[in-house]
Amino acid sequence: MDPRLLDRYFVLIAGLLLAMMAGVQVGSAVQESPTNDEPVHLTAGYVYLTTGEYSMDRSHPPLGRILAALPLLGLPLTHIAPENAWLEFKNLVWGNPIPADTIVLRGRLVIVGLTMVFGIWLGWWTRRRFGSSVALLAMTFFVLDPTLIAHGHYVTTDLIASFGIFLTCTFWADFLDRPGWKLLAAAALALGFAITSKYSALFLLAVLPILYVIAWRRNREEPFFTWLGAIKTGLMMGAGASLVVVLCYAQDFRNFGAGRPLPLVQPIAQAMEDGQVFGAMEPATGLLAFGYFRGVHELALHDAAGIPAYLLGHFRRHGWWAYFPVAFLVKTPTGVLAACVIAGLSLWQGRRRLPPAVVFSCLWLPPLAYFMVALRSSFNIGVRHILPIYAFLYVLLALVLIEYGPLLLRRAWRWTVVGLIVLVGAESISVYPHYLAFFNMASGGPGNGPRYLLDSNIDWGQDVKGLSVFVREHNLTPLCTALFTGAPMGYYGIAGRDLNQTGTPEGVANLPCAVAVSVNLLQGLFNSPKKYAALRRREPIARIGYSIYVYDLRR
Question: Model-level pTM?
Answer without folding.
Answer: 0.92
